[in-house]
Design goal:
Blueprint (H helix, E strand, L loop, with lengths): L3 H5 L4 H13 L3 H13 L17 H6 L4 H7 L4 H5 L6 H16 L3 H14 L4 H13 L3 H14 L9 H17 L9 H8 L4 H7 L4 H7 L10 E4 L11 H10 L7 E4 L7 H9 L6 E4 L21 E4 L19 H6 L6 E5 L20 E5 L9 E2 H7 L5 E5 L4 E2 L3 H6 L10 E7 L2 H16 L8 E7 L19 H4 L7 E3 L7 H13 L5 E5 L10 H11 L11 E5 L9 H12 L6 E5 L6 H14 L4 E5 L6 H9 L3 E3 L17
Parallel strand pairs: 1-2, 2-3, 3-4, 4-5, 5-6, 6-8, 7-9, 8-10, 10-11, 11-12, 12-13, 13-14, 14-15, 15-16, 16-17
InterPro entries: F-box-like_dom_sf, F-box_dom, LRR_dom_sf, TPR-like_helical_dom_sf
Organism: Claviceps purpurea (strain 20.1)
Protein name: F-box domain-containing protein
């Protein structure tokens, strides 16, 4: 039988809490509240006095303003509570408050429950309990955003603690995760201005215009001076509908938002109801223009301003409309080549790319703009019927610092005056690194053009050239290194060129005999600089020997190239594929390719329309013997399912297309 003293002893905080738990479980909430209150009052932190809650703190207001809930709980107090009592992280005190808040919740007295939850936060800002309870009650009050901010504040206050260090902290992270996807998104305009600009630069002009309609604040901010870069790219691409073309007034506004200097880039990829007034406005309002490209000309011919010399920063000019009339209309008139406009930008223009060579560029005294700092030139003769040879020498005078040169669709190149190549060969394009030529020749024009290309390849002994691409479509598929000697006896590539810095030689149509290929490539291979090379087997189709033997012999001639460690990409054009092959017939090609330890990309192309099964069988054997990453199957409408499965098993990308040929070519710094 218990003694009288034991019976009269005061129950401990733990006893009171346990009794309150039992009453709470029995749904006797009012009686449980009394026991929880007694447990709170018996905490040593009160010092025998009656402790009350501080009324100075306003957590919800602080959360709404984006302030620190932890600092509010820790330091905000102007009443006597803060002076009289200290913080308390006694686990029984905190548990009693938490359970009393839970009882109020069960009684649907959420105001009282929130009061106790905030009291926990006031007593112990570094514990997760208060944040978790306040957040739960806020969710019951349908205030999910406040709950998310409270959970976030609790996680921040406990960031030094491991998630698994306490069950309460685990619950806090779980509650936060359930709301995070809804409320973690922020108005991007609240971010630093530099970051806002970087984000919105991913949007095009039409999408930016939509953003202006979000609200007045967005429009005011996005059109302010600190976001000028957003309006400096005037891109009118194929995704824009004809209704997307801005009117003159709207265009003037956008250019004003671009700030001093106007647009830096103007790109017109479709007609977009453009007329002269809009085009002139775009140019004249953009004296700091750097990049101008026009892909689609309007039906009415445009004229370029020729009286102003304000575009001193223009670096890139491109006009690639296939319906260009530059070859039909005199320069500087509407629809004609903008000679004076480009001449006025001569001090800065580095890249020129256009379709349709003006008539004035041909002849003994051509009218070509003098562009002393031009680095890249690509000319597409387009649909022009002019068969007059284009003088390379006159181009070298007009563009003395050219680094990359590309001709497309020209009928004939003119090497005259021949004596100049002997006298001033070292002064002609001393920085030429890229030479590309694509055309269809007749027999009468081929020799002069091939000779001109030889001259270009001999400049500075070919040592400046890094990339050569020659696609000459002709019935005469002879070697570029043979013939033409009667035109100039001392132009010998063997004597005048070493090509020690050559990184790629591309040609889908020009076969090169092994002697010529060795001459072209040997120095670059020894220097470990050659990474890409195309082999054309087409000259063996017309011989009377077995085509399979001819292709194998062609590979045999290239034994000196086997195993070159620098080779990363090879093209095989018009190689013979037998109709009913044995694997052994494919082994010479597959073994040849397998000899290159760093080969990553292979291009297989057959213009003779080989059967899908033939080409697929070749590719399967190759994939099993090599370590390719990508294989291009050009000219094929499909491949076998077996090839697709083998490619997937070997982790090889299989592409039924030609590889991209970027322009201008990205030049890499040569290692000395």
């Amino acid at each position: 039988m218990p003694s009288s003293r034991a019976f009269d002893s005061e129950p401990s905080m733990a006893d009171l809490i346990e009794s309150g738990r039992q009453l709470h479980a029995a749904k006797k909430y009012r009686r449980s509240l009394v026991l929880f209150a007694r447990a709170m009052g018996s905490c040593p932190c009160a010092g025998g006095a009656r402790r009350v809650k501080c009324t100075c703190k306003n957590f919800e207001h602080v959360a709404a303003q984006g302030g620190s809930i932890f600092r509010e709980a820790m330091y905000t107090c102007h009443c006597e509570v803060g002076k009289t009592f200290s913080k308390c992280d006694n686990e029984h005190h905190i548990l009693a408050l938490d359970l009393r808040a839970a009882s109020f919740e069960a009684m649907d007295k959420l105001v009282h429950a929130m009061r106790d939850a905030e009291w926990i936060l006031e007593l112990a800002p570094r514990l997760p309990d208060g944040y978790l309870r306040v957040g739960r009650i806020a969710q019951l009050q349908k205030n999910d955003e406040y709950a998310w901010k409270m959970y976030s504040a609790g996680i921040e206050a406990n960031k030094e603690s491991a998630v698994g260090s306490s069950p309460k902290l685990q619950q806090l992270y779980g509650a936060h995760k359930s709301l995070h996807w809804r409320f973690s998104r922020k108005d991007p305009l609240c971010l630093p201005a530099e970051l806002v600009t970087q984000i919105f630069l991913f949007l095009d002009r039409v999408e930016l215009s939509v953003c202006l309609r979000v609200c007045k604040r967005w429009k005011r901010t996005l059109t302010s001076s600190q976001h000028c870069p957003l309006w400096r790219n005037m891109i009118f691409d194929e995704t824009c509908s004809s209704k997307g073309a801005p009117r003159v007034g709207a265009l003037r506004k956008m250019l004003s938002w671009a700030g001093d200097g106007g647009a830096r880039t103007i790109s017109i990829a479709r007609e977009l109801s453009y007329h002269q007034s809009k085009f002139t406005l775009l140019l004249k309002a953009s004296p700091h223009l750097e990049h101008l490209e026009i892909w689609k000309l309007p039906k009415k011919h445009l004229s370029f301003p020729s009286n102003e010399k304000i575009w001193s920063r223009l670096k890139h000019f491109s006009m690639q409309d296939r319906s260009s009339t530059f070859h039909q209309i005199p320069v500087d008139v509407p629809g004609g080549f903008p000679h004076t406009f480009l001449q006025n930008a001569a001090s800065s223009l580095e890249h020129l790319d256009f379709t349709g060579i003006p008539e004035q560029w041909f002849g003994s005294v051509p009218l070509i703009p003098l562009l002393p700092v031009l680095k890249t030139l690509r000319i597409n003769h387009g649909m022009a019927s002019n068969q007059t040879p284009l003088s390379i020498f006159h181009l070298s005078v007009a563009f003395p610092r050219l680094e990359q040169l590309s001709f497309v669709g020209l009928a004939e190149l003119d090497p005259e005056p021949v004596a100049i190549w002997r006298e001033r060969g070292n002064d002609i394009w001393p920085h030429l690194k890229v030479l590309m030529f694509q055309s269809y020749y007749s027999r009468s024009s081929r020799e002069r053009s091939i000779l001109t290309l030889r001259y270009l390849m001999c400049l500075d002994r070919g040592n400046t050239l890094q990339h050569i691409s020659l696609d000459v479509r002709s019935q005469d598929r002879s070697d570029i290194f043979s013939g033409c000697h009667e035109l100039l006896s001392d132009v010998d590539v063997a004597r005048h060129s070493t090509f020690q810095n050559l990184q790629s030689f591309r040609s889908r149509t020009l076969p090169i005999a092994q002697a010529g290929a060795r001459l072209l490539l040997s120095s670059a291979i020894e220097a470990r600089r050659l990474t890409s090379f195309d082999m054309v087997f087409g000259d063996y189709w017309n011989v009377r020997t077995e085509p399979t033997d001819a292709s194998a012999r062609h590979l045999k001639d290239y034994d000196w190239l086997r195993g070159a460690p620098s080779i990363q990409e090879l093209g095989c054009y018009d190689c013979y594929f037998p109709l009913y092959p044995d694997n052994d017939q494919f082994l010479p090609l597959a073994q040849f390719l397998a000899s290159f330890p760093n080969l990553q990309t292979l291009i297989l192309h057959n213009s003779r329309h080989a059967y899908m099964s033939q080409v697929s069988s070749v590719a399967i054997v190759i994939l099993r013997l090599t370590h390719l990453k990508t294989i291009y199957m050009c000219g094929m409408s499909g491949v076998s399912n077996e090839l697709r499965q083998v490619a997937q098993a070997h982790g090889v990308q299989l592409k039924l297309e030609s590889p991209p040929r970027p322009w201008p070519v990205t030049l890499r710094k040569l290692e000395t």
